Amino acid sequence: MTVGYHLLAYVFMLSRDAQRFIRWFDSSWMPLGAGALAGVNYPVDRAAVARELGFERVAPNAMDAVASRDAAYEYLAVATCCALNLSRLAEEIVLWSSQEFGFLRLPDAWSSGSSIMPQKRNPDAAELIRGKAAGFVGRLTSLGTLLKGLPLAYNTDLREDKRHLFDAVDCLDELLPAVRGLLAALEFVPQRMAAACDCWLMATDVADYLVGKGLPFREAHAVAGRLVALAAAGERPLEAISPDELSSLSPLFDDEYYDVVNLRRVVAAKVSYGGTAPASVERQLVEAATLIGQLRTQVIQLD
Question: Which end of the chain is less crowded, N or C, counting CB atoms within 10 A of the terminal residue's CB?
Answer without folding.
Answer: C
